[in-house]
Design a protein that fits this description.
The complex is a heterodimer of chains A (about 325) and B (about 100). Chain A has about 325 residues and is mostly helical. Helices cover about 70% and strands about 0% of the residues of chain A. Classes of the chains: A mainly alpha (about 325), B alpha+beta (about 100).
Chain lengths: ~325, ~100
Amino acid sequence: MTTELQKTGSLIKEFEAKIDQDEKIEPKDFMPEAYRKTLIRQIGQHAHSEVVGMLPEGNWITRAPTLKRKLSLLAKVQDEAGHGLYLYCAAETLGKSRMDMTQELLSGKAKYSSIFNYPTPTWADIGAIGWLVDGAAIMNQIPLCRCSYGPYARAMIRICKEESFHQRQGYEIMLTLAKGTEAQKDMAQRALNRWWWPSVMMFGPSDADSTNTEDSVRWKIKRYTNDELRQKFVDAIVPQAKKIGLTIPDRDLKWDKKRNKGTGGYAYGKIDWDEFWRVIKGDGPMNNERLAAKQRAWNEGTWVRDAAREHALKKQAALQAAE
Amino acid sequence: MTKEEKETCLWEVFIQPKNGLSHRHCGSVHASDRELAILSARNVYARRGEGQSIWVVKSTDIVSSDPDKKDEVFSSDDKIYRHPTFYDVPDDVGHM
């Protein structure tokens, strides 16, 4: 007679064999609890980041400099909402309810990307976000399209398709400002100065200090480590900055032919991890404002949700009466 | 949030890219009724001309087979005579 323990053991072996053969895991398949938990945490944080990420940019919709820019920004912010929803629905397939996730975000229990706790004081910040923040997000997200969990991978494919417009619109804003008057160029440079280091930090702690990496790599949730992705990002952005005549605010930045296994890459300066941890722990410039904005939106939407529910009940009753 | 506020229904969304192709599953949305489900599916999954028709189906109305019993449901490996390559035909007969 097989015991429960033996049964679980063979299920885990089957699961690992699927992962090794690059097969996808689907919602109803067996998966170890730790795999499920890791995914719920990661997809949830990812979804919250998309949703909170609408706030710094939403700040400029009414003040966009032209109608074209306003339309692009509206479309981009709407995309972020959509991306949040794709991801919430992927997390729901793991048995986590939407209401739980919403409550965890509103109570401050759930984390989202710290980058959105920085302010957007000028129009150039919108350019810098699209170029750098969305650029970093794409670096992170492309390998996730091959993640072992089917619904997450499918959501990421959709997201990546839409995300490249975001980065291009941001870069185009920066390019236009950089070609403009001295004041405009200065505004672009200052925005780059503000967003560079927080963007470099978006990849998370360096590999030596990252607690979640090892399991995630083994389970093919993550395909590259934080430092590998960070290097790719720096290597991609440096020539783009040069092209539009802006300067990366890092004096230690220089070509290092030893990087990337000898094919060369940019060496960069020391990252201020104290700042990183400070912002994650809630002490960033905008943490309170972001959470307050989400809570206000939720509370002000209560009557809409109530009305929709009442309407549905009423219609259902009428339908039943007619039958 | 009021205490009694419950989760809204989950709906699975299917989009038909164009005539001649089948509706294909693309994700899910939350909505309190079917009109709102279609509206929400449009906002979430059709922002770039992805198709011409949307179906939404309540997730709880979908009946599915058990993936652990897939061998019982899909037992084709032992019925190789159902495939064309099982039959020997002389090469000079050409394409058949």
